[in-house]
Every structure is written in structure tokens, then in C-alpha cells.
Write a structure and sequence with these properties.
Length: 477
């Protein structure tokens, strides 16, 4: 069995703020079937440390970026974990990236540089007699590992793959932190990790990792465009030959409408009715003949939920209702609360609630994902599996996972949802209008639901692609 070290700043079910956690948590089981065994390196946040029942100290560092650190080995929920226990970096109250003031922790560069440094040390020195054949790094928080590895005295090169889940976050630090971050001054230049006079952790990964991937083929192409590359499109174009897009899958045992303990289980879309009725009660909405759409999302600029606010009046006028679960930007939270106060057809829960998100997918007729950019997106995949028809912006992974209901696709019986472009409130309102039209044609609607529920959303196609990519890394100089 070949061995990989997966390095991520979050991992479900232990700690999650978004889809990265779902992917990091699902990948090990998915890869096992391809002959790859993954160990996952995670920061020792309080909730992670608390979840470790039996743990073993496998490494100690007297000083890791300002304090002592231990590496713990443990198994939780079937995940083979290496946890970096460094209280000065991770033992704090609050969100994992943000302090109580809602701003990034000032020492985020050090917190995740430490994670990357330990990843490199594991690759160079091993843990006991275990050594990875490859490193699979996720986002900026793991991106400095290949820089550190170059500086270490490793018996053999351990190649790395960097997966970009979100290019919006770069992990920037001022140049004055170079030494504290243990970065080699020689790399601080335009074709290294220097970026407009500062340190850019993600750029380090984009330059030094042996291969790059992102989480959908469309996003892999979009990333090389100035509109999507967030200032790193030039670097990505220069690495075009090493960049691929591999779609995310979902954990099909956790998201299974036939066995989900949170819902009234169903196999055929007709049987969603019980869940729908319960959801309408739970959100205080009305039992009507119009479509009930759900949204489960972080409330940030990326997710385009301001566009949906503008499209609400037209949708509601057509008989639609919306139930939203989300949290994030204070201004967006307030705007959605306002919309709910003004329209009885709109109901909002501000917060994070995993169980409720399952009930919403089971009860919703549709799920709306109007993102301005979306590397992959998972909620449209849950929607497909639970027969909640996706209405999505035609971008990134949303474009790759939903077969849009144009006339040809409907006639050919292949459509699984609605897409809109450009990503504006008007074109979203149009798409919601098309949804209302189809919803009124019950046999056609149910056919679409059945197709959606059959659409493959697991890892069976993507895991072998990652395996092939891992294997190709070995052939890299
Ligand atoms: P992103 O990672 O950009 O937030 P994804 O669609 O890839 O977007 O993943 C989001 C994940 O977080 C999904 O599993 C989604 O169900 C979950 N999620 C987002 N907001 C909430 C919430 N308020 N309550 C419960 N789950 C949420
Ligand atoms: C990011 C992206 C999302 C993707 C997730 C997992 O958070 O915003 O589109 O599904 O990572 O790859």
C-alpha cells in the first residue's frame, strides 16, 4: 500500500468551516480503494485534542514558531490522524481562523507555517518508521511545506501535490516576518513566494509544489483568467502543464436519503412530501403549491446571496418560498433577516446546524447556489442526491456537476437542474422563473428529480484520478 500525508487546516467530522473539511475528511476512505493509504495532519485545536481518545506522542519540538509542540498519533472516526499539539498556536477560544473581534488571528501566518513546517519534517524524517511517498497539501495553510522541505536534509525528495480549494485566501505576511517563519531569504523574490513586497504562502505552494490541482475542471480553466485568479492567474498560467481539475465527491453514506437518521428516509421523490411538510412547519412557512427552495451557505461575497435577495420578489410573486440557513458577514445576515421580516414566504436561520442542513435537503424542492465563483461546491451535490433540484450559477464546479434544463436536455431526459449566466440577479430571477414553470408540470418535475437522484456524486470517478496524479508525482524530478 502506498502512503500519502494529507495536510489540511480542517477535517470533518472533527473541525469544519466549509467544504475543505468535508473533502479532507472523505478523501482517506475514498483513496483506500485505489491502493493509497492517507494519514491526515491537522492542527490541534481544542475540539480536535478533545476528540482524541487514545493518543501517542510521536515527536516533540522544543520550539516551533514561539513555543513547544508535540505531534500526536491517533485514530478518530476511521481517520488516521497526526495532530500538531502546539498550545501557543491553537489552544484558544473563538473560530479557527478568526479571533473574537471577527478578524484573522494576527499570528495566522505562524500558525499555519508551523503546520507546513511539521509536514515537511515528517516527509524528511518520517514518524517512527512511517514515511509518506507523497504529500497532498490543501490550500494556503499547507502551502509552505515544499519550501521547507527543500531546506531540510531529506534522504529522498518527497513530491507534493497542492490542491486549491479557495484561491481567495493567500496567507499573506509582511516581509519582516521572514525569519520568524523560517523562510529562506533566497525564496523571497518574484519567482518565489514574494508578492508585491510581502510573503504569500499560497504563491509558495503554486511555485514549489510538484503538481497542482483544483476541485473542478471548469475552475481549473477559470483560475488562469484575471477575473478569477485573484492576482495569482499569472503564476497559474506559468504552471498550466501541471494544473488539473478533479471534481469533489460527497460522503454517500453520510448523505444518503434512504438511511439518513435526521430525516424521514425516502427512495423515490414522491416520498419527500413528509420531509417537505415538516420543513415548512419548522421554518414557519405556508403549505402551498409553489416550489420551496433552500439555501445552506456561508454568507460571504463569494456565495452571491445578495443577488438572491434581489431576485426574491419575482420568485415569491410566482408562488416560491425560500428557507435559508447560513452565517457569515454581519451585513448579509442583517439583510436576510430583513427580507424574512418583510416577506412571509422567506424564512431564515442564522447559524451553523449540520442536522438542519440534512432536513432542508430532504424537504426542499430546490437548492439555490448563486455563487460568483465556486471551485466545486458541495451543496448542489447534496441537492442532487436528495432530489432538491439545483439552481446554480454557471461557474466552476457548479457548471460541471449540474446538467442544465434547456429544451434539448429536457427532451433527451438528461437535465438535472437549472443554470444561469451571467451571474446577476436578473438572470437568477429568470432561472427561478423556469423552475416555477417546470415545477407546475408535475410529471416532468418528478422525472427531473429521479434523474438528479441517480446522478453520480460520490468519489468513484475522482479517487482514481487522484491516485493517477499521486503516481505521476513519483516520476517528477
Ligand atoms: P464552501 O467550502 O465554499 O463553504 P461548499 O459548498 O464546498 O462551500 O461546502 C460548504 C459545506 O458547509 C457544506 O457541507 C455545507 O452543507 C456546509 N455548510 C455551510 N453553511 C452551513 C450552515 N450554516 N449550517 C450547516 N452546514 C453548513
Ligand atoms: C472551497 C470552495 C468550494 C469547494 C470546497 C471543497 O471552500 O469554496 O467550492 O467545494 O472548497 O473543495
Amino acid at each position: 500500500m502506498r502512503q500519502a500525508l494529507s495536510v489540511a487546516s480542517e477535517c470533518a467530522p472533527l473541525i469544519k468551516t466549509g467544504g475543505l473539511a468535508d473533502v479532507a475528511g472523505a478523501l482517506p476512505a475514498a483513496m483506500l480503494e485505489t491502493g493509497w493509504k492517507l494519514r491526515t495532519l491537522l492542527p490541534g485545536y481544542p475540539s480536535v485534542i478533545a476528540a482524541l481518545k487514545r493518543k501517542r506522542v510521536v515527536r516533540e519540538d522544543a520550539d516551533l514558531m514561539g513555543g513547544p509542540a508535540r505531534l500526536l498519533e491517533a485514530t478518530v472516526a476511521g481517520l488516521d490522524l497526526l495532530v500538531l499539539d502546539a498550545p501557543h498556536l491553537y489552544d484558544r477560544k473563538g473560530a479557527i481562523y478568526l479571533g473574537p473581534d471577527g478578524k484573522d488571528w494576527p499570528d495566522n501566518p505562524e500558525r499555519f507555517a508551523a503546520l507546513s513546517w511539521i509536514a515537511a519534517a515528517i516527509a524528511a524524517e518520517g514518524v517512527g518508521d512511517w514515511r509518506p511517498d507523497v504529500m497532498h497539501l490543501h490550500d494556503w495553510q499547507a502551502s509552505l511545506a515544499p519550501v521547507y522541505l527543500r531546506e531540510m536534509d531529506a534522504p529522498a525528495h518527497v513530491p507534493s501535490l497542492l490542491t486549491i480549494h479557495n484561491i481567495a485566501f493567500h496567507g499573506m505576511a509582511p516581509a519582516s516576518r521572514l525569519e520568524g517563519l523560517r523562510l529562506p531569504p533566497s525564496g523571497f523574490q518574484p519567482d518565489g513566494f514574494e508578492y508585491y513586497g510581502a510573503i504569500n504562502a499560497l504563491k509558495a505552494g503554486l511555485v514549489y509544489a510538484d503538481k497542482l490541482s483544483t476541485v473542478s475542471p471548469t475552475y481549473a480553466r477559470e483560475l488562469m483568467l484575471p477575473e478569477f485568479g485573484m492576482g495569482l492567474d499569472g503564476v497559474l498560467r506559468s504552471r498550466r502543464a501541471d494544473l488539473v481539475g478533479i471534481l469533489n465527491g460527497i460522503d454517500e453514506s453520510f448523505w444518503d436519503p434512504q438511511t439518513d437518521p435526521e430525516i424521514s428516509p425516502f427512495k423515490s421523490p414522491k416520498k419527500k412530501a413528509v420531509n417537505r411538510a415538516m420543513l415548512i412547519e419548522e421554518f414557519g412557512l405556508a403549505h402551498t403549491d409553489g416550489p420551496l427552495a433552500v439555501v445552506i451557505s456561508r454568507l460571504t461575497e463569494q456565495k452571491g446571496l445578495d443577488l438572491l435577495l434581489d431576485a426574491l420578489p419575482a420568485f415569491v410573486a410566482r408562488g416560491g418560498q425560500v428557507a435559508l440557513l447560513g452565517s457569515g458577514d454581519a451585513a448579509l445576515e442583517a439583510a436576510w433577516r430583513n427580507a424574512a421580516d418583510g416577506m412571509p414566504q422567506v424564512s431564515v436561520r442564522i447559524g451553523y446546524d449540520e442536522a438542519l442542513s440534512h432536513r432542508m435537503m430532504a424537504g426542499g424542492d430546490a437548492v439555490i447556489v448563486p455563487s460568483r465563483f465556486e471551485p466545486c461546491g458541495l451543496t448542489q451535490l447534496y441537492g442532487l442526491r436528495y432530489g432538491a433540484i439545483p439552481v446554480v450559477a454557471m461557474t466552476g464546479g457548479l457548471a460541471d456537476t449540474v446538467i442544465r434544463a434547456n429544451d434539448a436536455a429536457l427532451v433527451a431526459d438528461v437535465a438535472t437542474g437549472f443554470q444561469f449566466f451571467p451571474v446577476t440577479a436578473d438572470s437568477l430571477a429568470d432561472a427561478l422563473g423556469r423552475l416555477c414553470d417546470l415545477f407546475a408540470d408535475k410529471p416532468a418535475w418528478e422525472r427531473m428529480q429521479r434523474r438528479a437522484m441517480r446522478h453520480p456524486v460520490g468519489w468513484s470517478a475522482s479517487a482514481p484520478r487522484y491516485a493517477a496524479l499521486y503516481e505521476s508525482l513519483g516520476q517528477h524530478p
